Predict the structure.
Amino acid sequence: MSDYEYDESASSDYDDDDDFESESDDSWGLQTGKLSLEDSMSFGYAPEDGTNNPKDMVQIGSKFKFPLEIVYQVLFVGGKRGSGKSWSSAVLMEEFERHGLQFVCFDALDAHGHLCELDGIEAIEPQKHETINMKKLVERLQQSGSSLIINMSGLGLEMQQRLIADYCEGILETMISDKGLMTFFEECQDFIPQMGRPLSFAPIVRLCKLGRAKGYGVALISQRPAAVSKEALSQASVYMIHNIINTKDLNALKEQLSFGTDKATINKILSGITYAESGDMVCYAPEYYKDQGYVVVGRVDNERRTQHKGKNINVVSKLSQPMNSMVSFNDTYSSDTSKNLSKSSHSFSDAFSADDDSNYDDNDDDDEDDMESENKMPQYEWSATESEELYSSVPEIKNNFVKGAAIVSIASSAFYILSRFIVSGRRG
């Protein structure tokens, strides 16, 4: 700890603070108050003045810096929906691009499409009737040095799992580059679940275990740590955790962090995770944060170089908007968007192949004829006369129903009496 001095005052408890209340040390730190995450999680280590050279560091916030070798580590990025995990992952990818480090992102939610605006990043978007020639894709990764976003939002889950399995097996058989390659798996619980063994499970676990020897890193991104395979999580050397409040997820993290970490530190980590606001992050990285007590907390405050697609939808009541303010779907497209789509599909497009083109008809004329026929269909309209005729027939229908029911009831009674008479006669 040559660069850091222990500050006893920084480790004081906050039980006597009037601004918030806290449970016992064995709890997960549920509390009320306005303390910042950093204030609530002081580990007593105060860094001296001095900063690392940004040319030699991957920096995703003023508090979070890593050497370039993080590109071949296994990371876990977690947090509930809206906590900032996809933002942090995107910042990390932007940093990789800034340093010329290569990555591939399997984007199940189309959260990172705008990253292809950067020169060193391209994107492809396979559809249901398309497959990817992984041999060509791997060759393209080798030759171009470009990073790649694979937007899988248009594919079913089984197809996504098969694609990822083929990719992992393909790169493990090949040396991509001597600079390292990081693979990001958004919604990784769908590909390496704790329960079940889909086609993608074994290849991802192998990549986590064996990839480092070839310079291959893995970033596992998920809302639900408890739903992610423990076997895969155990390979992570860096945990970047945003807000999580689910007890099962906290227990899963606690189990993973228990190896080589004292109980007090684990409890503080879990307390910080439950207390974190959107954008706050608790980073556990023993290999890189030895002098900071293994843990660094703060906000991911790097300015984005590209627009973030993983933001929440702004829901507005129609009562607050005039009717003429409705926006056409065509208005969502711009020339810049079209340019980016064209650019993103250019270099890797030869890796696509169609499974069966016979089921996909691109004849726009037929579609237009169908639309015209739909528009020409007559609309049924109610008239006052028709309404009167309808309602006037109701009593008649009702009376007929009552008469019919009475007849059935009388017939049933007569049948019953007759049956009883016959039975009693036989007994006599």
